Amino acid sequence: MPDTPSPAHDRDLGDAARRRAPVPLGLIAWIAVFSLFPVPAAATDLGAWVQKMEPHERWHSVEFRDPYSGKFLVSRAGTEDTRARATLTLTASPLDACLPDVVIVFERDAPAVADLERSEEIQLQIDRRPPTRVPVRIVTQQRDRFEFVQFESLFDTRNLAGHRVLRVRKPPELRAEFSLRGFAGAWQTALSLCQNFLPVD
User: Fold this and answer.
1) Is the peptide bond between 172 and the residue preceding it cis, with omega within 30 degrees of 0?
2) Which residue of 4, 14, 106, 107 is most buried, as measured by CB atoms within 10 A?
3) Are 52 and 62 spatial neighbours (Cβ–Cβ below 8 Å)?
4) What is the pLDDT along the chain (201 residues), one digit of tens a residue?
5) What backbone phi and psi angles, to 5 degrees, belong to 120?
6) How far, in Å, CA of 72 to CA of 113, rounded?
7) Domain assignments of the chain as residue spans, ordered by start
8) Which of 65, 29, 42, 62 has its CA nearest to residue 146?
């Protein structure tokens, strides 16, 4: 995974309606796709925020904490398609009842020429099952090489467990293929960690 500084985005985890507002940050590229949560504006390296990164075959689980207070923020499971320069992450936040927030990040050759946010549909195919279409929000920001594809409907993670590959298509520009080897372990680790911090009724 890349380890050179690159622009990225943040997201608002505190909204009960799950609305998110990407904003630019200067972050290490690999950390960027594993770190979409509020950080101090002056932060340029989120390495201190990352805790307990664990490999699970082709996936990783990772925990994020505030390095100053030690407060748990989010946990995440993620993988990448290096050929497509794309990263798939599922984030679990106690503020969202640990429901999976699914984002695919594509790195483009050139920065975007303008801010853009639009609703689209992408096609998902698991192994040789019939493809399905899901609604997404696609966000780019001027002078940023990253294109964010955020799922707008609740994603059933049980559909991925026990399978081999997830193919993502939105002709002609969005195409990626993610291995599912290790997904179940990575997501269960992230989910269990998040659930430990759910508020008690």
Assistant:
1) yes
2) 106
3) yes
4) 333 323 333 333 233 223 333 322 222 333 444 444 333 333 334 567 788 889 999 999 989 888 889 899 889 999 989 899 899 999 999 988 999 999 998 888 888 888 888 999 999 999 999 999 999 998 888 888 888 899 999 889 998 989 999 999 987 778 999 999 999 999 999 999 999 999 876
5) -140, -175
6) 36
7) 5-195
8) 29
